[in-house]
Amino acid sequence: MSHHHHHEAHDHQHASGCGHIAVQHGDHVDYLHDGHLHRPSGQQMGECRIEASVANPDQCTPQHACADHAKEHQHGPTCGHPSVPHGDHVDYLVNGHLHHPHGPHCDDHGALRVVA
């Protein structure tokens, strides 16, 4: 797991049912909030990234044919899919999978375990 920094003033309390998508990340749960993965830790709020790994690779997958959105769909800040920090880039969460826009296709960067 990689922590990049702590938010000093984060008034929102992340927890089950708080309104943000909860993602199992190693031995803890992170919450997707405005393009960040927040990890509650006592009085502080850590910020995580999904590491590039066998489960969540960061390579090109031009053979990926996603049935969860139209072929011409373009991922980006206003596409309607939550953004997720992954390795050194940003992916978009689509039906439990990380999608990375790459030229004329989107790469499949693996599944995330979204928890209730």
Q: What do these coordinates show?
A:
With 116 residues, the protein is mainly beta. It has a domain at 2-49. It is built from no helices and ten strands. It has strands at 2-7, 21-25, 28-33, 36-41, 44-49, 83-86, 89-94, 97-102, 105-111, 113-115. The strands form two sheets. The chain has a six-stranded antiparallel β-sheet with strand order 1-5-4-3-2-10, with no helix packed on it. Strands 6-7-8-9 form a four-stranded antiparallel β-sheet, with no helix packed on it. A hairpin with a 2-residue loop joins strand 2 and strand 3 (28-33). The mean pLDDT is 86.
Order of helices and strands: EEEEEEEEEE
Beta content comes to over 45%
Radius of gyration: 14 Å
Main β-sheet description = 6 strands, antiparallel
The number of helices is 0
- Alpha-carbon distance between the two ends: 21 Å
Strand order of the largest sheet: 1-5-4-3-2-10
Structural class call reads: mainly beta
Shape: globular
Number of strands: 10
Q: What is the residue-averaged pLDDT?
A: 86
Low-confidence runs of at least 5 consecutive residues: none
> Into which percent range does the helicity of residues fall?
under 10%
Oligomer category: single chain
